[in-house]
Structure formats: C-alpha cells, structure tokens
Design brief:
PMP22/EMP/MP20/Claudin; PMP22_EMP_MP20; alpha+beta; 5 strands; 4 helices; transmembrane; five-stranded antiparallel β-sheet; Epithelial membrane protein 1
Length: 161
C-alpha cells in the first residue's frame, strides 16, 4: 500500500509539473514560415521573437476560456496534492482521499474543457504558416488529461482501503 501511495504521489507531482509547462510554454502549435519555424500557444506567438497572440474578435472569448480552464486545472491539481498530504495524516482509514479524488476529477474536467476549446478553435493553419502540427505543450496537456483521470479514480478507489 505504501508503494502504491508513493507511486501515485510521484505521478501526481509529475502531472502538476507537466500542467505548468503545458500552460506556460507557447508550443501548442508549430509551423513553418518563410523566415523559419514559428510556434504559438495560449499566450504568445513566437517566430524569432515572441509577441502577443493575435486572434480575431470572434475567437478572443474562446482563447480566454482555454487560458482560464488551463489555469484552473493547475490550481485544482495543486489543491488536490495538498489535500492528499493533509488527508494522509489526518483522516482514518475508509474516509481518506475522497475529497482528493473529487478535486482531481474537477482538474481532469478543466483540462478536458481547456484543451478541447483550443483543439476546436485554434488548431489548423495560421496566416503565414505552412506545415502546421501540434507542439509538445498540446501533447503534454492531453497526457495530463489522462494522468489526472487515472489519479482521480485511484484516489477514489484508495478511499476504501
């Protein structure tokens, strides 16, 4: 049981770190321009130098929603990590990790919404870019989506042990 808890704790910390990297790094999409490679993400567009990501007024709300849900996922993941540590030492068997699992599943839902909005609205061609593909930040977001779901379910299952 102790090895299982340690493993879940390590995966949870890795998920928090990957969520930070995924949200902060501006490599959700990568493409080629006449002057070289460029990338863009939730915040900036980088092509040699980084500048504010320019979106049309109809897409601005979608971008803000994706940004907000990715930030919320980080917050909920950190709260779940703190709750895991608190519940590990304060609650008796049978009552542990219920809140932690629920918070982690809320984190999972926030990642799902944020990454889905970005996928639906912002993948594809940007003006001036050709050969676009998903970058490592986008892939990390979906890996965190899977990890947060697995961790949330494991916390709920561990509640009974």
């Amino acid at each position: 049981m102790l090895v299982l808890l340690a493993g879940i704790f390590v995966v949870h910390i890795a998920t928090v770190i990957m969520l930070f990297v995924s949200t902060i790094a501006n490599v959700w999409m990568v493409g080629t321009t006449g002057s070289g490679k460029g990338s863009w993400g939730l915040w900036l567009m980088c092509n040699g130098t980084c500048r504010q990501l320019v979106v049309s007024s109809s897409e601005a709300a979608s971008l803000k929603a994706a940004q907000a849900f990715m930030i919320l996922s980080i917050i909920f993941s950190v709260i779940a990590l703190v709750m895991f540590i608190v519940q590990l030492f304060t609650l008796e068997k049978g009552k542990r990790f219920y809140i932690t699992g629920a918070i982690m599943l809320v984190c999972w839902l926030c990642i799902l919404i944020g990454a889905s909005i970005y996928t639906a609205r912002f993948t594809g061609l940007r003006s001036g870019f050709v050969n676009t593909h998903h970058g490592y930040s986008f892939i990390l977001a979906w890996i965190c989506f899977c990890f947060s779901f697995i961790i949330g379910i494991l916390y709920l299952v561990l509640r009974k042990k």
